[in-house]
Amino acid sequence: MRVFENIDCMEGMKRYPDKYFELAIVDPPYNIKFSKYNRVQQYPNGETFISNQYHKSDWDYYKPDKNYFVELFRVSKNQIIWGGNYFELPVFKHFIFWYKHQPVKNFADGELAWSSFDMPAACFDYMCYGNINADPDGKIHPTQKPIALYKWLLTKYAKPNDKILDTHVGSASSLIACEDMGFDYVGFEIDKDYYDAATKRINQFRSQLKLAV
Length: 213
Known about the structure:
The two termini are 22 Å apart. The longest helix has 21 residues. 26% of the residues lie in helices and 23% in strands. Helix 3 packs across helix 4. The strands form two sheets. It has an eight-stranded mixed sheet. It has a two-stranded antiparallel sheet with strand order 3-4. The chain is an alpha/beta fold. The protein is globular. It has one domain: Vaccinia Virus protein VP39 (Rossmann fold, 3-Layer(aba) Sandwich), CATH 3.40.50.150. Helix 4 links the parallel strand 9 and strand 10.
């Protein structure tokens, strides 16, 4: 079962019974209004530029309310929630940190995820610069995460035959990682433009697999 739909995740999750998914890996909007501002970026070589390519969308003008998390916890047994520091979530022991080696001076060095697992904290050490943009379509979403990050998460936290849920698919890095590692998944993306771009990216990945056979 591999399902990717252009619908509101709240409507999508209603279809599934309690604890249907073994693992939810999600990256909801944080309400930091990413698309509102020109992004002044400066690389180590001193080069700077202003990026406003995400002004077309208000995707980050809200963040999920309590009802979203109630539903997410209902349909999944375990959860990994990127941007967990932006939400009111239960006290947790196990957090996940993606250390990016960020070369842009005014960007964060990493990202934090809340996790339901009871184990020591974990760090994924992976340089984002030169890796995300190496994907066939480049960066198609402003908060796009590398496929390698999701493959690491699946290797560490998922078991064979687990069903994976992503409520905010974005660039589809999570779904591509699932396909590459043989996991079933359900994904939702409410924005039609991002849904179309993500679908194209998934299809390109599948085409590359066929050529490699």
